[in-house]
Specification:
homotrimer, 170 residues, alpha/beta, Rossmann fold, 22% strand, globular
Chain lengths: 170, 170, 170
């Protein structure tokens, strides 16, 4: 089986998750959904339920809010199609847990780079607004931008999704 | 007359309105401008006046801050070129008026889908920054993203305008 | 020597500065870096140092936080490759110094338009989030959008950089 790494970027409600799911569902192999979202509150509960309703019945779902690299490694070479949704929420969980960005980003990038099979990653573009007032938000958007650059550099295919429409970047 | 539906997306001051106007002005048929802006304050007055100064003398202007679907229906089959600027302000008016998003978005999407003639829609991309602090802003950007997806799915042509330059998405 | 004007647009941490530097480093002629950043605080110091570490040893560096047009004029016709990083920080310095946008933007645009040689400009896209609460931020993003449109109209080549990947706009 040839490995394929696809990164789906986009703003909030750009249709990037749906596009990524469609790409996974037309592939060969059982689709596995790795969710990074944590249902802290009602709003997040509703968001997760909405995403779940979009997926067909074949999906197996795994939760990995923080330990994403081991979850990816465990699925390597299994003939599955792995969808990670999304890297930006994982980054947010990382910062909340006080874990260092550079070290964790390196570990995750390596896990994606060595993955044997098809892996599809979803991530948010968050740096296209005005500079945020507070330092934490600035660090978050800087880290998110760096993470997207790291992932784009090792992926075979990168799509920017705007209003549900994919635009090829790589 | 063949119908054509064009959606022009872009950030603030991306040149999307000017691009949309130029597309309307080279078309066959008298151009009609449907404005969704409401001149609440001096800033908005100035913004509306600036947009008006960009348009040539042939334009007929209609204001439809809320009842956009009936305004579009009334112009269907008249041989006009209709420009709606913009959907995102209409959405903002909708939320301020306490109207439900899903029902209104469906009505509007249907009006655009059945329009007989050339219709050009302008909308803002608002979901590319960090997650807003307050729930209302989050709902607004989610709704705006969904509305853009709905419109993109029924339009024949979708352009993303960046720094005045159009990039074809569909 | 044929003149070439390249504008590199992108969000925060999109890789636009690195892309611009790589383009400068493969060109013929000694590269000159015109920095508009002012090291007000530790965060900005670190940001400037990080950008400097990305550049190879051949670079000559000039600081022009406000008087950007004269700095560009002085390098015209010298066979250098000039990189200005970035226009959006220059705009920010302009507003802080209380200088009028339209007049200064016109002067800068003219200096770029008459530049004899290769000039590469970096600028931020800042208008893709929700409307900012405060009027100053709204003016800043409007001015930034207008400046990017002015520059794009006179440049020979415009690239949008997303996750380190360039997308041609012109």
């Amino acid at each position: 089986m040839t490995s394929h790494r696809l990164l789906c970027l986009g703003g909030a409600r750009s249709g990037k998750s749906r596009y990524a799911q469609q790409r996974a569902e037309v592939g060969e192999g059982a689709p596995v959904f790795i969710a990074t979202a944590q249902p802290f509150d009602d709003e997040m509960h509703a968001r997760i339920a909405r995403h779940r309703a979009d997926r067909d019945g074949r999906w197996h779902c795994i939760e990995a809010p923080l330990d994403l690299a081991p979850a990816i490694d465990a699925l390597s070479g299994q003939g599955k199609i792995v969808l990670v949704d999304c890297l930006t929420l994982w980054l947010s969980n990382l910062l909340l847990a006080g874990k260092p960005f550079e070290a964790e980003a390196t570990i995750l990038t390596q896990a994606v780079a060595r993955f044997d099979g098809t892996i599809i990653l979803v991530a948010n573009e968050v740096g296209w607004g005005i500079v945020p007032d507070n330092a934490l938000a600035r660090k978050f958007r800087d880290d998110a931008g760096r993470l997207n650059q790291h992932m784009a550099s090792i992926c075979d295919e990168v799509m920017l999704v705007v209003a549900g429409l994919p635009l090829r970047l790589k």
